[in-house]
Amino acid sequence: MRTKSQSSSNLKVIFTCCSILIFLIIFFARSNISSSSSKPLSETNLSQEDVENQHKPKGCPTTQQCTKMPISLSDALVHYVTSNVTPQQTFDEVSVSKRVLDKKSPCNFLVFGLGHDSLMWASLNHGGRTLFIEEDKAWIETVTNKFPNLESYHVVYDTKVKNSDKLMELGRSEECTSVTDPRNSKCDLALKDFPADFYETKWDLIMVDAPTGYHEEAPGRMSAIYTAGLLARNREDGETDVFVHDVNRPVEDEFSATFLCKGYMREQNGRLRHFTIPSHRARAGRPFCPVDVDRRR
Hints:
Elements: H1 4-38, H2 41-44, H3 48-53, H4 63-67, H5 71-82, H6 91-104, E1 108-112, H7 118-124, E2 129-134, H8 137-146, E3 151-154, H9 164-171, H10 196-200, E4 205-208, H11 222-234, E5 239-245, H12 250-261, E6 265-269, E7 272-278, H13 293-296
Parallel strand pairs: 1-2, 1-4, 2-3, 4-5
Antiparallel strand pairs: 5-7, 6-7
Helix pairs in contact: 5-7, 11-12
Protein backbone atom coordinates (compact mmCIF):
# COMPACT_ATOMS: atom_id res chain seq x y z
CA MET A 1 0.00 0.00 0.00
CA ARG A 2 1.35 3.41 -0.95
CA THR A 3 1.92 5.97 1.76
CA LYS A 4 0.61 9.52 1.57
CA SER A 5 4.17 10.91 1.20
CA GLN A 6 4.91 8.59 -1.75
CA SER A 7 1.77 9.67 -3.59
CA SER A 8 2.62 13.32 -3.06
CA SER A 9 6.16 12.76 -4.34
CA ASN A 10 4.90 10.97 -7.48
CA LEU A 11 2.49 13.80 -8.31
CA LYS A 12 5.33 16.33 -8.09
CA VAL A 13 7.43 14.28 -10.54
CA ILE A 14 4.53 13.97 -13.01
CA PHE A 15 3.77 17.70 -12.81
CA THR A 16 7.42 18.60 -13.36
CA CYS A 17 7.70 16.32 -16.43
CA CYS A 18 4.52 17.72 -17.99
CA SER A 19 5.71 21.29 -17.46
CA ILE A 20 9.03 20.56 -19.17
CA LEU A 21 7.26 18.85 -22.10
CA ILE A 22 4.88 21.80 -22.65
CA PHE A 23 7.81 24.23 -22.48
CA LEU A 24 9.75 22.28 -25.14
CA ILE A 25 6.73 22.14 -27.49
CA ILE A 26 6.19 25.90 -27.23
CA PHE A 27 9.91 26.61 -27.67
CA PHE A 28 10.29 24.55 -30.84
CA ALA A 29 7.02 25.86 -32.33
CA ARG A 30 8.20 29.45 -31.84
CA SER A 31 11.59 28.61 -33.30
CA ASN A 32 10.02 27.17 -36.47
CA ILE A 33 7.71 30.17 -36.95
CA SER A 34 10.58 32.58 -36.39
CA SER A 35 12.94 30.86 -38.82
CA SER A 36 10.23 30.58 -41.48
CA SER A 37 9.20 34.22 -41.23
CA SER A 38 12.81 35.39 -41.23
CA LYS A 39 13.47 33.81 -44.64
CA PRO A 40 13.22 36.17 -47.60
CA LEU A 41 10.44 35.42 -50.11
CA SER A 42 13.00 34.38 -52.70
CA GLU A 43 14.22 31.57 -50.42
CA THR A 44 10.74 30.27 -49.72
CA ASN A 45 9.87 30.31 -53.45
CA LEU A 46 6.64 32.17 -52.67
CA SER A 47 5.64 35.54 -54.03
CA GLN A 48 3.91 38.10 -51.84
CA GLU A 49 0.68 37.27 -53.67
CA ASP A 50 1.17 33.57 -52.92
CA VAL A 51 1.71 34.29 -49.25
CA GLU A 52 -1.45 36.38 -49.10
CA ASN A 53 -3.46 33.77 -51.00
CA GLN A 54 -2.52 31.11 -48.43
CA HIS A 55 -4.92 32.81 -46.05
CA LYS A 56 -7.82 32.98 -48.52
CA PRO A 57 -10.40 30.25 -49.20
CA LYS A 58 -9.31 27.98 -52.03
CA GLY A 59 -10.64 28.96 -55.46
CA CYS A 60 -11.52 32.53 -54.50
CA PRO A 61 -9.77 35.54 -56.09
CA THR A 62 -10.59 37.64 -53.03
CA THR A 63 -12.18 36.95 -49.68
CA GLN A 64 -14.85 39.52 -50.49
CA GLN A 65 -15.83 37.68 -53.68
CA CYS A 66 -16.21 34.47 -51.72
CA THR A 67 -18.44 35.88 -49.03
CA LYS A 68 -20.54 38.38 -51.00
CA MET A 69 -23.63 37.19 -52.88
CA PRO A 70 -23.34 37.79 -56.66
CA ILE A 71 -25.45 40.72 -57.89
CA SER A 72 -27.35 38.48 -60.32
CA LEU A 73 -28.50 36.25 -57.46
CA SER A 74 -29.47 39.10 -55.15
CA ASP A 75 -31.41 40.76 -58.00
CA ALA A 76 -33.21 37.49 -58.69
CA LEU A 77 -34.19 37.01 -55.04
CA VAL A 78 -35.59 40.51 -54.72
CA HIS A 79 -37.34 40.35 -58.10
CA TYR A 80 -39.16 37.07 -57.55
CA VAL A 81 -40.03 37.70 -53.90
CA THR A 82 -41.67 41.01 -54.77
CA SER A 83 -43.23 40.04 -58.12
CA ASN A 84 -46.84 38.98 -58.61
CA VAL A 85 -46.21 37.86 -62.20
CA THR A 86 -46.31 34.10 -62.82
CA PRO A 87 -43.30 32.83 -64.84
CA GLN A 88 -43.98 31.18 -68.20
CA GLN A 89 -42.94 27.72 -66.99
CA THR A 90 -44.16 25.65 -64.05
CA PHE A 91 -41.92 24.45 -61.23
CA ASP A 92 -41.74 20.93 -62.70
CA GLU A 93 -40.90 22.27 -66.17
CA VAL A 94 -38.17 24.55 -64.85
CA SER A 95 -36.74 21.65 -62.85
CA VAL A 96 -36.00 19.72 -66.07
CA SER A 97 -33.66 22.44 -67.36
CA LYS A 98 -32.29 23.18 -63.90
CA ARG A 99 -31.03 19.60 -63.51
CA VAL A 100 -29.01 20.00 -66.71
CA LEU A 101 -27.72 23.44 -65.66
CA ASP A 102 -26.67 22.00 -62.30
CA LYS A 103 -24.34 19.66 -64.19
CA LYS A 104 -23.12 21.97 -66.98
CA SER A 105 -23.02 25.49 -65.55
CA PRO A 106 -21.15 27.73 -65.88
CA CYS A 107 -21.73 27.25 -69.60
CA ASN A 108 -23.02 28.92 -72.78
CA PHE A 109 -26.81 29.12 -72.63
CA LEU A 110 -28.87 30.46 -75.56
CA VAL A 111 -32.49 31.40 -74.85
CA PHE A 112 -35.06 32.29 -77.50
CA GLY A 113 -37.23 34.77 -75.63
CA LEU A 114 -36.71 37.45 -72.99
CA GLY A 115 -39.36 36.97 -70.33
CA HIS A 116 -40.26 37.15 -66.67
CA ASP A 117 -38.07 34.10 -66.02
CA SER A 118 -34.95 35.46 -67.75
CA LEU A 119 -33.30 36.67 -64.55
CA MET A 120 -33.77 33.18 -63.13
CA TRP A 121 -32.02 31.52 -66.10
CA ALA A 122 -29.09 33.93 -65.94
CA SER A 123 -28.77 33.34 -62.19
CA LEU A 124 -28.91 29.54 -62.52
CA ASN A 125 -26.05 29.84 -65.02
CA HIS A 126 -24.01 32.10 -62.74
CA GLY A 127 -20.47 32.47 -64.01
CA GLY A 128 -21.46 31.39 -67.53
CA ARG A 129 -22.92 33.28 -70.47
CA THR A 130 -26.68 33.49 -70.99
CA LEU A 131 -27.85 35.21 -74.18
CA PHE A 132 -31.49 36.08 -74.85
CA ILE A 133 -32.91 36.43 -78.38
CA GLU A 134 -35.98 38.68 -78.42
CA GLU A 135 -38.36 39.93 -81.15
CA ASP A 136 -39.84 42.87 -79.21
CA LYS A 137 -37.42 45.80 -79.08
CA ALA A 138 -39.53 47.81 -76.64
CA TRP A 139 -39.70 44.85 -74.25
CA ILE A 140 -35.90 44.49 -74.36
CA GLU A 141 -35.56 48.12 -73.24
CA THR A 142 -38.06 47.58 -70.42
CA VAL A 143 -36.31 44.50 -69.07
CA THR A 144 -32.70 45.63 -69.51
CA ASN A 145 -33.39 49.02 -67.94
CA LYS A 146 -34.34 47.12 -64.81
CA PHE A 147 -31.67 44.42 -65.15
CA PRO A 148 -28.78 45.85 -67.21
CA ASN A 149 -26.64 42.75 -66.67
CA LEU A 150 -28.89 40.63 -68.90
CA GLU A 151 -27.45 40.16 -72.39
CA SER A 152 -29.96 40.25 -75.24
CA TYR A 153 -30.17 40.69 -79.00
CA HIS A 154 -33.11 42.13 -80.91
CA VAL A 155 -33.96 39.99 -83.94
CA VAL A 156 -36.61 39.94 -86.66
CA TYR A 157 -38.41 36.82 -87.90
CA ASP A 158 -39.94 36.59 -91.38
CA THR A 159 -42.19 33.54 -90.84
CA LYS A 160 -45.83 33.20 -89.79
CA VAL A 161 -47.68 30.43 -87.99
CA LYS A 162 -50.24 30.24 -90.80
CA ASN A 163 -47.47 29.03 -93.13
CA SER A 164 -46.21 26.30 -90.81
CA ASP A 165 -47.59 23.40 -92.91
CA LYS A 166 -45.69 24.58 -95.98
CA LEU A 167 -42.53 25.03 -93.93
CA MET A 168 -42.88 21.52 -92.55
CA GLU A 169 -42.97 20.08 -96.07
CA LEU A 170 -40.01 22.23 -97.04
CA GLY A 171 -38.10 21.01 -94.02
CA ARG A 172 -38.17 17.43 -95.27
CA SER A 173 -36.13 18.34 -98.36
CA GLU A 174 -32.49 17.38 -98.79
CA GLU A 175 -31.40 21.01 -98.32
CA CYS A 176 -32.92 21.05 -94.85
CA THR A 177 -31.48 17.72 -93.70
CA SER A 178 -27.90 18.74 -94.53
CA VAL A 179 -25.78 19.83 -91.60
CA THR A 180 -23.92 23.11 -92.04
CA ASP A 181 -23.54 26.56 -90.54
CA PRO A 182 -27.06 28.07 -90.60
CA ARG A 183 -25.67 31.11 -92.46
CA ASN A 184 -24.63 28.83 -95.33
CA SER A 185 -27.71 26.62 -95.30
CA LYS A 186 -29.90 26.43 -98.38
CA CYS A 187 -32.90 25.64 -96.21
CA ASP A 188 -35.40 28.50 -95.87
CA LEU A 189 -36.08 27.43 -92.28
CA ALA A 190 -32.57 28.40 -91.17
CA LEU A 191 -32.14 31.76 -89.43
CA LYS A 192 -29.38 33.48 -91.39
CA ASP A 193 -29.40 37.18 -90.48
CA PHE A 194 -28.66 37.07 -86.76
CA PRO A 195 -25.48 38.58 -85.20
CA ALA A 196 -22.28 36.62 -85.93
CA ASP A 197 -21.84 35.75 -82.26
CA PHE A 198 -25.08 33.76 -82.41
CA TYR A 199 -23.51 31.31 -84.88
CA GLU A 200 -19.91 31.27 -83.67
CA THR A 201 -20.51 30.40 -80.01
CA LYS A 202 -20.57 26.75 -78.97
CA TRP A 203 -23.90 26.60 -77.11
CA ASP A 204 -24.19 23.99 -74.38
CA LEU A 205 -27.91 24.59 -73.75
CA ILE A 206 -30.58 26.11 -75.99
CA MET A 207 -34.06 27.02 -74.76
CA VAL A 208 -36.76 27.70 -77.36
CA ASP A 209 -39.52 29.65 -75.62
CA ALA A 210 -40.06 32.29 -78.35
CA PRO A 211 -40.94 33.93 -80.67
CA THR A 212 -44.68 34.45 -80.29
CA GLY A 213 -46.66 31.52 -81.63
CA TYR A 214 -50.20 31.55 -80.28
CA HIS A 215 -51.98 33.12 -83.28
CA GLU A 216 -51.90 32.73 -87.08
CA GLU A 217 -50.12 36.03 -87.83
CA ALA A 218 -47.41 35.45 -85.19
CA PRO A 219 -43.90 34.48 -86.40
CA GLY A 220 -44.07 31.09 -84.68
CA ARG A 221 -41.16 28.92 -83.56
CA MET A 222 -40.64 26.91 -86.73
CA SER A 223 -37.30 28.51 -87.63
CA ALA A 224 -36.14 28.80 -84.03
CA ILE A 225 -36.61 25.07 -83.44
CA TYR A 226 -35.00 24.10 -86.74
CA THR A 227 -32.00 26.42 -86.21
CA ALA A 228 -31.49 25.24 -82.63
CA GLY A 229 -31.10 21.71 -83.96
CA LEU A 230 -28.76 22.88 -86.71
CA LEU A 231 -26.54 24.77 -84.25
CA ALA A 232 -26.33 21.65 -82.09
CA ARG A 233 -25.45 19.34 -84.99
CA ASN A 234 -22.92 21.78 -86.46
CA ARG A 235 -20.80 22.19 -83.33
CA GLU A 236 -17.30 20.72 -83.59
CA ASP A 237 -17.75 18.14 -80.85
CA GLY A 238 -19.79 17.25 -77.79
CA GLU A 239 -23.54 17.58 -77.45
CA THR A 240 -26.16 20.26 -76.88
CA ASP A 241 -29.21 20.06 -74.65
CA VAL A 242 -32.20 21.68 -76.38
CA PHE A 243 -35.46 22.51 -74.60
CA VAL A 244 -38.73 23.44 -76.32
CA HIS A 245 -41.62 24.94 -74.38
CA ASP A 246 -45.34 24.93 -75.26
CA VAL A 247 -45.27 21.55 -77.02
CA ASN A 248 -49.02 21.35 -76.37
CA ARG A 249 -49.34 23.51 -79.51
CA PRO A 250 -49.13 21.93 -82.99
CA VAL A 251 -46.08 23.86 -84.26
CA GLU A 252 -43.94 23.22 -81.18
CA ASP A 253 -45.06 19.59 -81.08
CA GLU A 254 -44.51 18.72 -84.74
CA PHE A 255 -41.40 20.77 -85.45
CA SER A 256 -39.55 19.62 -82.32
CA ALA A 257 -40.36 15.95 -83.01
CA THR A 258 -39.29 16.29 -86.67
CA PHE A 259 -36.21 18.50 -86.54
CA LEU A 260 -34.88 17.79 -83.05
CA CYS A 261 -35.87 14.13 -83.51
CA LYS A 262 -37.83 11.77 -81.29
CA GLY A 263 -34.71 9.61 -81.05
CA TYR A 264 -32.86 12.47 -79.34
CA MET A 265 -35.68 13.23 -76.90
CA ARG A 266 -34.76 12.58 -73.27
CA GLU A 267 -37.82 13.76 -71.37
CA GLN A 268 -41.14 15.56 -71.53
CA ASN A 269 -42.60 17.20 -68.45
CA GLY A 270 -45.80 19.15 -68.88
CA ARG A 271 -45.36 21.47 -71.88
CA LEU A 272 -41.55 21.14 -71.96
CA ARG A 273 -39.47 18.70 -74.02
CA HIS A 274 -35.78 18.02 -73.53
CA PHE A 275 -33.56 16.79 -76.36
CA THR A 276 -29.85 15.95 -76.29
CA ILE A 277 -28.32 16.37 -79.76
CA PRO A 278 -24.74 15.23 -80.51
CA SER A 279 -22.31 16.89 -82.89
CA HIS A 280 -22.68 15.57 -86.44
CA ARG A 281 -19.36 17.07 -87.50
CA ALA A 282 -17.52 14.85 -85.04
CA ARG A 283 -18.81 11.71 -86.76
CA ALA A 284 -19.17 11.75 -90.51
CA GLY A 285 -22.20 10.01 -91.97
CA ARG A 286 -24.43 10.38 -88.92
CA PRO A 287 -28.08 10.58 -90.12
CA PHE A 288 -30.05 13.76 -89.46
CA CYS A 289 -32.21 11.80 -86.99
CA PRO A 290 -31.24 8.53 -85.26
CA VAL A 291 -32.42 5.42 -87.06
CA ASP A 292 -35.52 4.12 -85.31
CA VAL A 293 -34.77 0.86 -83.46
CA ASP A 294 -38.00 -0.80 -84.56
CA ARG A 295 -37.22 -0.05 -88.23
CA ARG A 296 -33.83 -1.76 -88.00
CA ARG A 297 -35.29 -5.05 -86.83
